[in-house]
Amino acid sequence: MQLFVNDLTVIDFSYLCSERGVVGESWIVDVLLSGDLNAESMVLDFGIVKKQIKAIIDNSVDHKLVLPTLNPDISISKSSRINHLYVDFDLKDNGLFLQSPSEAFAQIETDFINEENVTRYLELVIKQQLPENVQGIELTLRPEKVPGNSYHYTHGLKKHDGNCQRIAHGHRSTIHIYENGNRSNDLEQMWCKRWQDIYLATHSDQIQLNEVELSEHAKANLKPDHQYFSYYAPQGRFDIAVRKGTLEVVDCDSTVELLADYIARQLKAANNSNDYRVVAFEGVGKGAIASA
C-alpha cells in the first residue's frame, strides 16, 4: 500500500557550488510512503506525515547552508567558539569564508549538490525515524515551474528568532515589476540578472577585517575586494567574507518586505517621473508588495 502527500513543504536553503559560488534555492517536496496498514488501517496518519516528516526535512536542510563535503574546494573545521564551525570555500575567483553555529550547516557526503543527492540524504535521515510498518519512502524535490524570470539569492536576518537568522541561507525567487501600471519584462530581466547567485548583505552588519572571526586559512587567503559581515543572533555568532563581484550591500534588512521596497526605491530614483509596483517573492508562493 502507498500513501502520498504532494506539496508537503518547501525547503529554502543555500549550497556551495564550484561553478556558481553560493547558490540560494527553493525546492518543493512531495512524499510517497510504502508499507503495511497499521492498527488504524493506515500506512501513516496524514497528520504525522505533515508534522513529523515535514519537521525532519526542515531540521535537516531548510534554512541551512548545504555543504558537499567531498568537494575539494571546501574545508570544514572547528571554530574557537563552542559549537561553531569554520567553512572555507577556496574558489579562485569567488572565495567565500564563514563562521556559524554548527546547526546552520547541513553536511552531505557528495562532491556536488543537486536534487538527487539531497533526496538520497533526506530519505536516509527520514527512514531512521519511521514506524516499522513503513518500509519505504520516496521523495521528489522539484523547483517551482516559473514561466518568466527568477533569481537565486543568499542572505541572513540577524533580528529573526528562528532559522532565518542563519547568515547563509537562501531562496530561488520570482519578481513582478509594474511601471506605470504595466508589467515590465525588461525591468524583471534586469533585476534577475543583477541578483543571480547574489549574496545580499545589510550595510549595518558590515565590519572591518580586524573584527571578523574566520579560520587562519581563510585570513591567509582573503583578497583585497573581500567584504566582511557579522552579527550575533540567538543561535550564536555569524561571520562571512564575500567578494565584491557576488555581493550587493543594501541599506535595509534583507526581509522580503524591505527588499521589495529597496527595488521600488531604486527604480524610482532612476526615473522619478514613473510609478513602480514591485511584487517580490521569497521562494515559492509567498512574498511582499511595495510601491514607489
TrEMBL record:
It comes from the Bacteria. It is an enzyme of class 4 (lyase). Pathway: Purine metabolism; 7-cyano-7-deazaguanine biosynthesis. Coiled coil: none annotated. It catalyses: 7,8-dihydroneopterin 3'-triphosphate + H2O = 6-carboxy-5,6,7,8-tetrahydropterin + triphosphate + acetaldehyde + 2 H(+). Its EC number is 4.1.2.50. Belongs to the PTPS family. QueD subfamily. This is 6-carboxy-5,6,7,8-tetrahydropterin synthase. The lineage of its organism: Bacteria, Pseudomonadati, Pseudomonadota, Gammaproteobacteria, Alteromonadales.
